Amino acid sequence: MHESLINIRRAPYQSLSMLLIQVFVSFLVLAVASGTIFILALLNSVESEPKIIVYFKPLTAEATIFKVREYLVSSAQIADITYVDKMAAYALYKEQANGSQPLIDDTSPDIFPPSLEIKAKNATYLENIATYLQKQPDVDEVQYQKNTVTKLLSITNAIRWSIIAFVGYLALMTIVTLTTMTNFKIALRKEEIEIYELLGATSGYITKPFYTESYILTTVSGLIGSGLFVGGLFYLQPSLTTYLQGITKLSYTIYGQTLIVWPYHYLTVGVICGATLLLMLMISGVSTKLATRKYLV
Asked: Which architecture characterizes domain 51-144 according to CATH?
C-alpha cells in the first residue's frame, strides 16, 4: 500500500487525471442510475394504472363470477380485483345521474350487469388476462385499453434500452481513458520494469502495483463521487419534495428486493452508491488488465 501511494505521487498528473475522470464518471453514473430507477418506478406505477373491466351477463350466478375471480387471484398476476354487483352498479349509476329522477325511475338494479375491475401487477399481464376472460362463456364484454398499454410498454422498453446504451458508452469511454493513462504510467517506469524482468520477477509481481494504484484511485474517486451525489440529493430534497408533491411513494423491485425510490431512503441510496463503486472497480480492473496485458502470461 505504501509503495503504491509513492508510485501515485511519482506520476501526479496522470494520477490526478485518472482520479478526476473517475470522480466525474462516478457522479454521472450515480445520477443516471438514480434517475433511471426513479423513472422505472414511475413507469411501473403508471403501468399499474390501466385495468380491465369485465362485464358478465345479467343472469350470471355469483358463484360463477367468484370462480373466475379465484382463478385470476391464484395466477399471481393480479394486484387488485374488485367485484361490483348489480346493486353497487345501480348505486354508482344513481350517483352519476346527478339526482335526475326520470333517469333513475326508468332503471332498476336488474338491468345492470355484475362486473370485475382488475388491476395487474404488471401491464404485460393484461393481454393474457383479457384473453382468458374473453373465452369465458358467461362474459358479456371485456373493456381493455390495448393500444394504450402497448404504447406505454414500448415507451418503457425504449427508455430502458436508451439508459443501458448510455451507461455502456460511459463504461467504454472510461475504460479507454484509464487504459491510456495506465500506459503512460507504464512508460514512465519502463526501465524499472525491465530491471524487474531481468531479475526474474513474475508478471504478477510486475503488474500488481498497477492494479493496487488503480483500485486506490477508483475507491477514492468513488467515495468523492458518492459524497457529491448524496450532498446534491440533500440540497435538492426540498425542491424535489415540492415538485413531486402529488407522489406519495414510489418503489422498484430488483431481483425480488424492493427499493423505496421516493421519498429517498438511505438503503436505496446506499445500494446505488455501492453498486456504482463496484462497477467502477470492475472497469478499473479491466482497464489495468488491458494496459498491462503484455506483462501477463
From this structure: 2-Layer Sandwich (3.30)
